[in-house]
Amino acid sequence: MSAKYRLVENPPASRKEGVTELHARIVASRTATMDDLAEEISTISSFSPGDIKGLLTSFSEVIIRRLKNGENVNLEDLGYYSVSLECPKGVTSDKQIRSASVRFKNVNFRCSAKMKDSLKSMTLEREPSKKKQRFSAEQRMKHIQNYLQSNRTVTASQCCAFNQCSHFSTMSDLRALINAEKVEKLGYGKNVLYMLRQNTNDR
């Protein structure tokens, strides 16, 4: 089985001499859930999907507890987890800050060398090009709000897909919606989600 990819335009800021370069991006066929993983593992083991899901849930809880305790977590063949922190800007001395001002920022994940080597052999297939429909910024933002009327959250990648636009345009749309107090941002880094702000449906 092969993975599909498509060619996407780089952001305008990266253009060289008026020429827009392209980069390859995976087209995810779907998102595998914990239930999917449990079902698949059960076919190659003597454990039931329920047993495996319970184990995976406990596994996640233990990793979170270890990270909360200030430990790094090395999953060997998978990768390495660690926590990053943030504190107020402008601090130049340890006397300027208290522990209460330091807080969680993100979870860092460094993929293992073994996993990277295994993925180098993946088979890639280019997705047939489709005629790209051009939407105005107003139309794109309306599409995002309509999507959130039926779905609790949305990711930037999903916005790129249904608006058929670049990541650069999507982030511009989302920032505009946040500034207009119609949408709010949840999470950090690669785990960011967007949802409608409360009491904005009538705006």
Question: Can you offer a commentary on this structure?
Answer:
- By secondary structure, this protein is α+β, with helices and mostly antiparallel strands.
- It is 35% helix and 21% strand.
- A three-stranded mixed sheet has the order 2-1-6, with no helix packed on it.
- Helix 1 (34-42) packs across helix 2, helix 4 crosses helix 6 and helix 5 packs across helix 6 (167-179).
Short description:
With 203 residues, this protein is of the alpha+beta class.
**Low-pLDDT segments:** none
Write down how many β-strands occur, each being a DSSP E stretch of 2 or more residues.
8
Q: For the largest sheet, list the strands in their spatial order.
A: 2-1-6
Helix content: 25-40%
Question: What fraction of residues sit in β-strands?
Answer: 15-25%
Q: Radius of gyration from the CA trace?
A: 21 Å
- How would you sum up the global shape? globular
Number of H- or I-type helical stretches:
6
